[in-house]
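User: I would dearly like some help making sense of a protein record. This is the protein in question:
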Amino acid sequence: MGWTVAIGIDTHRDSHVAVALDRLAGARGSLAVSADAKGYLLLWRWAQELGEPAFAIEGTGSYGAGLARFLVSAGAEVYECERPRRAERRRGKSDLIDATLAAGRLLQDRSLPRVRGGGEREDLRLLLLERRGAVRARTAALNQLQAVVVTAPEALRSRLRGLSGQQLARVASRLRTAEEGAVIAGVLRRLGRRVRELGRELDELDSELEAIVIRLVPELLEESGVGPVCAAQLVVSSGDPTRMASEASFAALAGTSPVQASSGLKQRHRLNRGGDRQLNRALHVIALNRVRWHAQTAAYNQKLIASGKSPREARRCVKRMLARYFHRRLQMIPALDLTP
């Protein structure tokens, strides 16, 4: 450890509370600051007065994001710290207690991850976040459109019968109010326009995602079954791949590590419902594509089924294999050294 003082920080929307401990876990002081540039500077100067500081921050992906960026730009060592577990709450809960626990974890656990890098990785995260919202909104609008068609007057229903998806939205968006059922025609028209507008938003988002992915990790797009969205999710979820101590830790992050579900003579594993579900979904999509189009993956999948596994169990094994493969693959890409 090059630092001499551990600063634990409990973050909130409007204020942050910091506690300083020396290497022997002795208290050096505490400070509450506002969650703005003035408060960040005050905290940084206070920490420097105590020695050579390192920071363990709760919520670096939410309320602590601004402070983490400030400290990283100032050249500080900044680490991510999970919020206290229930077992650690036996002393009660307060901002000072939570900040003290964060500083203590920095002293005790040298494997705390550095904050995930910003830049293009953060751009990808924001685009994926917006894309998920747009997909959900378009799906909801399509469901509403199809439900309204079911109850529409026969004159309208006959025009829209047999259509689905974008084709239904296109025809519905051009309906005229003067036709039978003026109100329902207006509802269909607005829903159709909403679906088409959200489709255009998704096309724009996908173009931006693809441009960044091509610039940052073209190697991933060369992999069978990996498109721009899945490649972006691999980059966002892993951050700096060296954060993962082993491929097993990456599999646990992805929710693809096996979970024992054995009983008596029956030995089996069940679905892991933990981890980063967006990363798990990306691996799921890649697995479906590779089972169909990648000869080695297809052969491995067939071997698993021939050995007695169900198709679902075989697919989970394929996802676990892919987690192992992409953990190594991500570590080989120099552009992903995104930590400070």
Summary: The mean pLDDT is 87.
